[in-house]
Design goal:
single chain; about 190 residues; alpha/beta; six-stranded parallel β-sheet; about 15% strand; globular
Length: about 190
């Protein structure tokens, strides 16, 4: 293997309740590339083993700093050490920004903005699946790789949509941080219903 040849794509985190990383792995594998979903320690070991020959995809690492709903200095230091190790050992580091602010945090304040600035500085590429983020932070927009997944729709939902002039589909889990109640309030206040 040549010195600067990418030998694998490392994806964090391992799939758990969210299948995004598993699907990203599947999409990369469609191109005959080796892709592995790993935990943080496994990712560091693989990155060291294949020194400067890996591309790393990082998802939701911003949550490390705000895991309890507050800014954590320890979480920030863990993130900083993790990124510095990867910066030294990996060929490329791609940060995928999924959310405006971390899951358990409630605002886009100075701590969140600082955390994202550090992440952007220590990663080689920053992408998002949201056109809004792309414009907001001047990062690359790439459509979500989950487009060929087979979804099952309830026939009642399909029939219900025909009773409204306009309708919206909310994609993903109904989690508190997504502020679904704001969307419902908007429908009630608007002339869309």
């Amino acid at each position: 293997v040549e010195v600067n040849t990418i030998v694998s794509y490392l994806i964090y985190p391992k799939p758990a309740s969210n299948s995004y990383t598993k699907d990203l792995n599947r999409v990369i594998s469609l191109y005959d590339e080796k892709a592995f979903c790993l935990s943080a320690p496994e990712l560091i070991i693989q990155s060291l083993t294949n020194f400067r020959r890996t591309t790393v995809f990082l998802n939701w690492i911003d949550n490390w700093v705000f895991r309890t709903g507050k800014f954590s200095i320890l979480g920030f230091l863990k993130l900083l050490v993790f990124l510095l190790i990867l910066r030294f050992t990996s060929e490329k580091i791609v940060f995928v920004r999924h959310n405006i602010y971390p899951h358990k945090y409630k605002s886009l304040d100075k701590f969140v903005k600082f955390t994202y600035r550090v992440i952007y500085f220590l990663t080689t590429h920053q992408i998002t699946h949201s056109k809004q983020f792309a414009a907001m932070d001047n990062i690359i927009y790439i459509p979500c790789p989950l487009t060929d997944r087979d979804y099952v729709f309830d026939s009642n939902v399909i029939n219900l949509k025909d009773t409204f002039k306009k309708y919206f589909l909310i994609y993903g889990r109904l989690d508190e941080y997504k502020k679904i109640e704001e969307i419902i309030k908007y429908f009630q206040d608007s002339k869309l219903n």
